[in-house]
Design a protein that fits this description.
The complex is a heterotrimer, with two copies of chain A and one copy of chain B. Chain A has eleven helices and six strands. Chain A has a three-stranded antiparallel β-sheet with strand order 1-3-2. In chain A, strands 4-6-5 form a three-stranded antiparallel β-sheet. In chain A, α1 packs across α3 and α5 crosses α7. The longest helix of chain A is centred in the N-terminal third of the chain and has 15 residues. Chain A is elongated, with a radius of gyration of 23 Å. By secondary structure, chain B is mainly alpha-helical. Chain B is built from seven helices and four strands. Chain B has a three-stranded antiparallel β-sheet with strand order 2-4-3, covered by helices on one side. In chain B, α2 crosses α3. The longest helix of chain B is centred in the middle third of the chain and has 26 residues. The termini of chain B are far apart. Classes of the chains: A alpha+beta, B mainly alpha.
């Protein structure tokens, strides 16, 4: 599987080894001057395959490439290098909600958690570089909406958001849809079973629905 | 764990060391800590209680969940622990929900108790899904914990070099302008056609000698003079007229300000 | 030549990749716990051979091992990016004066231009490779004198300085037109140059141009 690497592959290896930050195909092509992005991409695939079985691996995270140690070598490295940030329970939940629902407003996060989110929680996530303000929702009050960053994907070893654990199942079972939508969908589905017209959902009932929905 | 990821019989706490809070407390004997600090709000407490039913969240018994919650809050209150308002509001709402659920359907208010219970269940499912996703996310191979980046990267450097641009014409033109700008300035007055005061005096006196009638000043000017000369002649002739008036050789008349000026000879 | 690396080799790859400093065989063996130094040494040899032809190499320096980019890939670590910039008006004038009057001191340049010349202007001309210090004038203060370089002639397509048009030719082509017009044109030009924020040294000098040349 391993043949002598060509010049482009060698240059890419050297560049990504030396780089202090992950690099996109475009940045690599630009750095190497006269390389075509398509050639760079192909060469990266070859390199990634070569490194797959080694102690160091070449991975793509959020369209940016970097070298990192193989996950199964963690035990030899972990002992003196526990440098990962510990997140509070609120922090991990808010991060997951943003990642699975992005872009999402603070009110939407709170309606899922049933509790107010302290400003500090979002600050910690933004300071870690995992979350950013991704604009504003064009609804009254124009609330800020939050999304994850390429650093988030990099840190958690995700090639893209499609890699989020279980996201396909969550989507398929409607667990990423708001309660109102899910309720409405259920009523439509069960229309024949539950023929009681009084059960027709009304959007405005939200407030009555639940005391903790802030 | 069920295929759709809704079961919580696998202890979440074992999956990651990032998980703190009540979920990491021993949960097998159903003995809950009687404190609320550990929960992220009443919904979180409800979800925890629901998990203890050890069934799919879709088939939990809302009624028994309500009982458990109310019982928990009762005991917490009995222990005189400080109760957060949110938990008490939730308790009151759940008590209302329970009584509604026990009523015959036709006596229920809108929305129906079944709808409220279903919505509560949907909310618990969603929070449960996110709680589990958070745990799975934290359990991934994380940089700095499971995988590591290069310890001492050489770094990439881009040296910017300026290539200055200037062409031959720009160079020569710049020199020309320096020379032109700094060359000693010589001021020359262009030669202009003028009528001197002397010639105007001669001309006006001579013409006054011809008649005793009033004559407009313009009539003393050379008839076909170009505009420059004409303006000079007008000025000189005016001064000549004043001079002749001063010497008592002519008189001047003007009926209105800026009106035509006329003069005639005073007979000697 | 490349077979699937064994666990020890993979652990060594990961350790040396993540290490912040080169590591000795003993340090590596200690780090890996139950590895014999002899085994470690043998594994390092295998790895060094594997990386020999790649863009990254495993090398031993003073009994300590580390990864480094291949020497022939060094050029990818340092890239030069060229940026084309128009010489400022002041720069062009000073260059022209040096070309017509060389060797010439700064005081002489100023007296010909009628304005002060910032040191930055001469620096730019020397950086461009068009002007050099050609010695010192044997007068009080021994001021540096400036002259053009062969690169200057080459850049402007001149075989010698005698190719520069003389004053009479300049007059004939209208380049010595009345001061007012030329001055006005110059002020318009300067306005454009000033807009470039990078040109600040020249920009400052431009301001000085005003009072001195009125």
């Amino acid at each position: 599987m391993s043949t002598r690497p060509d010049d482009l592959q060698r240059a890419l290896e050297a560049t990504l080894f030396a780089a202090e930050e992950p690099m996109s195909v475009e940045a690599l092509a630009g750095h190497l001057g006269d390389a075509e992005p398509a050639e760079v991409r192909a060469a990266l695939q070859v390199l990634a395959a070569h490194y797959e079985e080694r102690g160091v691996q070449l991975v793509e995270r959020g369209k940016r490439w970097h070298f990192q140690t193989a996950p199964d070598c963690a035990h030899v490295l972990r002992r003196e290098r526990e440098q990962v940030r510990r997140l509070s329970r609120a922090g991990t939940e808010v991060l997951a909600i943003i990642a699975y629902h992005e872009p999402v407003s603070r009110a939407e996060i709170e309606s899922i958690r049933g509790v107010q989110t302290s400003g500090g929680t979002l600050d910690v996530l933004m300071e870690a570089g995992w979350v950013r303000v991704a604009g504003r929702r064009e609804t009254p009050g124009r609330p800020a909406i939050y999304a994850t960053t390429p650093e988030f994907l990099q840190h958690f070893g995700l090639s893209s958001r499609r890699d989020l654990p279980g996201i396909d199942e969550l989507r398929a079972t409607g667990l990423l849809d708001p309660v109102d939508d899910a309720y409405e969908a259920m009523m439509t589905d069960e229309g024949e079973v539950d023929a009681d017209p009084d059960n027709s959902p009304q959007g405005l009932e939200n407030k009555k629905d639940f005391p903790a929905s802030v | 764990m069920s295929a759709d990821g809704l079961m919580f019989d696998a202890p979440v706490a074992d999956e990651t060391d990032d998980w703190s809070g009540p979920a990491s407390a021993p949960a097998d004997d159903g003995a809950l800590y009687l404190e609320l600090d550990g929960w992220e709000g009443p919904l979180d407490l409800l979800l925890d209680l629901a998990r203890r039913q050890k069934v799919d969240l879709r088939s939990i018994s809302i009624l028994s969940l309500v009982d458990q919650y109310l019982d928990y809050i009762d005991r917490a209150e009995a222990l005189r622990l400080e109760m957060a308002a949110d938990y008490l509001v939730m308790a009151a709402w759940l008590a209302y929900l329970k009584s509604s659920l026990l009523l015959p359907k036709e006596e229920q208010d809108e929305p129906s108790a079944e709808e409220l219970a279903l919505r509560l269940q949907l909310r618990l499912q969603r929070l449960g899904a996110m709680r589990e996703s958070a745990a799975r996310l934290m359990a991934r191979d994380r940089i700095g914990r499971d995988v590591f980046l290069r310890g001492a990267p050489e770094g990439l450097r881009i040296d910017r070099k300026t290539q200055w641009k200037c062409d031959w014409y720009g160079l020569v033109q710049a020199y020309g302008q320096v020379k032109a700008r700094t060359a000693p300035a010589i001021h020359m007055v262009r030669e202009r056609p003028v009528m001197t005061l002397e010639s105007a005096l001669d001309r006006v006196s001579a013409m006054l000698g011809v008649t005793l009638d009033w004559m407009a000043l313009e009539e003393f000017l050379p008839p076909h003079a170009e505009p420059g000369l004409r303006r000079s002649a007008l000025a000189s002739s005016f001064v000549a007229a004043l001079e002749l008036a001063r010497l008592g050789k002519a008189e001047i008349e003007q009926e209105a300000t800026f009106g035509p000026m006329r003069l005639r000879r005073i007979p000697a």
